[in-house]
Amino acid sequence: MSSNSEPNPKIIDLIAKKEAGSKPFVSIEFFPPRSDAGVKNLYARMQRMKESINPLFSDVTWGAGGSTADLTLEIAEHLKETGHVANMHMTCTNMEKDGDPKLAVHSALKTAQKYGIRNIVALRGDPAAGQDEWKAADGGFTCALDLVKYMRENFGDEFGISVAGYPEGHPNAISEIEDPSTMSESEKARSSTCDGKTFTCKDEDYKKEMDYLKQKIDAGADFIITQMFFDTKVFGTFVDDCRKWGINVPIVPGLMCINAYPGFCKMTKFCKTRVPAELQAKMDSIQDDAEAIKAFGVEYGIQMCRELMEIGVDVLHFYTLNLEKVTFGILKGLGYDVKGVVDESDASTMVAKGSAWARVGDKVKTIYGSGTVQDVRSDGTAQVMIESWSLAEGQTPTAFLQKEHYSKVF
Ligand SMILES: Cc1cc2nc3c(=O)[nH]c(=O)nc-3n(C[C@H](O)[C@H](O)[C@H](O)COP(=O)(O)OP(=O)(O)OC[C@H]3O[C@@H](n4cnc5c(N)ncnc54)[C@H](O)[C@@H]3O)c2cc1C
After folding, report:
1. Most buried residue among 225, 261, 359, 361 by CB atoms closer than 10 A?
2. The CATH classification of domain 11-349, taken from the options 3.20.20.70, 3.40.47.10, 3.100.10.10, 3.20.20.220
3. Best mutation site among 62, 124, 146, 238 for ligand 1, i.e. most ligand atoms within 8 A of its Cβ?
4. Mean pLDDT per 10-residue interval, the chain, length 410 residues
5. Is the CB–ligand 1 distance for residue 125 below 6 Å?
């Protein structure tokens, strides 16, 4: 491992070096894996991806509810030590140290500073496990804006700061529309459908979103990384709107790599993402063919990136899901110099730390054969319908299994 004792440069200074007419820079995102084997494999992948695509910067996420704080810091340090410019995510959810949430944030930032990590994605975070609504800890931050302000007040220019932007509106600002014919043209353009229902961020809510985003930038954020999207027109409109709102910082498009059908469906439903009808139809038609999904992920990614390059972006930011095949494929297709050979033999170890052990509907392998999860308790115990057994009169047995006794089938 090469040692890098110098603090990382700030990403905003690196973006500023982009020459007119040159291809966009590339950046990538990883999440902290659940198991030690996953972390070991991730470190090997980070090394390979540094050598093969040399990203401008590399993000590591902060697990839902702050569940990975120490591991995120460790991975960010490792990124930096292996020559990446680390962009460490940090959320305000469940941040408490000696009962004081600000102390916990301060101490995590001090640790980052000690490691020479100079770039932070300042986020509010999603609700902690088991909660529907996000609640601030007593005396803690209420939103990402508070975190940005705190960092600038207490650490000055020590850190480069990026914040999240939502081209379709934050999921909390997206509502169901009873009568789609009442939507304005702009509401229609960013609308999505799920289970036969129509959703959109209404114009008045979108304006509030933009006002708030402007506050995050005015408080000292250097640039924006967007939520995933699959319709580049929505991104283009968002960029135009940001400029109208006086938000003039770089806007980095977040590109979710299409790696697998179940993950695509789960994420787009959770984020209420707009999925163009032809994209959904294609995904549905090849859902049982894992290799075809990846090949299509590459094809669709290339098309999206070409459209983004026409709009004009400084950076293409890939949510890699800790894998490499789709990112490499897209970059190759766009004519980037990609070295090395794809190796995803470790894919089953790339399960996020802090994510549910399994979710209702997941297919699992158990000591009694294969089955489907019916319920999961907070300690990871799952109720599984064992489909490989059938009892008299066509009944199917149900087993209650501790988390060590079942594993997800990917
Ligand atoms: C690029 C990116 C990276 C992410 N990384 C992570 C991660 O590592 N870990 C993780 O747990 N989650 C991550 N998330 C998810 C994110 O934590 C959630 O989307 C969360 O619900 C909101 O975080 P935020 O920083 O956007 O919140 P905020 O910027 O605080 O905004 C959340 C919502 O509240 C509204 N709002 C908040 N305060 C105000 C106010 N004062 N006035 C008006 N409106 C307000 C905003 O308009 C918005 O709708 C990421 C999201 C993105 C887009």
Report:
1. 225
2. 3.20.20.220
3. 124
4. 75 97 97 93 96 97 84 97 97 79 90 97 83 78 95 97 98 96 98 94 98 98 98 98 98 96 91 95 96 97 98 97 96 95 89 69 83 74 83 81 74
5. yes
